């Protein structure tokens, strides 16, 4: 490259840099103006904020007290709930033990009742067998003997009655 071209290129770049610096200066001035406007608005709001500041501090303090009170009450409720749950657990253990005891006792009583019922049934069967063997058998024998005597008496009495009596007896069966 020759010197003339290099000088033109350098001049162009210096101009571009100068324009960029002017743009930056303009932006910096705009930021300065905006900051001044914000500062003036903040100065106008500062007396209002100073009036609100005690109220905000009071609100923060009451909120802090309420949070502390809430924490204390929650801790108290938690301790009571833990105590209630522990008492409930103990009572449920007692109820469980009681139910186990009742179940065991009921099973024992049912076994005893079954044994008593079985014994009563066995004794009843033995009594029926004794009555059947000791009373019914002799009664049947006596009844059989009485029937035999009655048949013998009837037979003897029929001979004397003759054929008319036999006809009447046959008509009764027809």
Provide structural commentary.
By secondary structure, the chain is mostly helical. It contains two helices and no strands. The chain is rod-shaped, with a radius of gyration of 64 Å. 0% of the residues are buried. The mean pLDDT is 87.
Q: Which oligomerization state do the chains in this entry correspond to?
A: single chain
Largest sheet: none
What helical percentage do the residues reach?
A: over 70%
What is the number of strand segments? Answer: 0
Count of alpha/pi helices = 2
Spatial extent as radius of gyration: 64 Å
Low-confidence stretches: none
Structure keywords:
mainly alpha, 98% helix, 174 residues, single chain, 0% strand
Describe this structure in a few short sentences.
With 174 residues, the chain is mostly helical. 98% of the residues lie in helices and 0% in strands.
Break the fold down into its secondary structure elements and pairings.
Layout: H1 3-161, H2 163-173
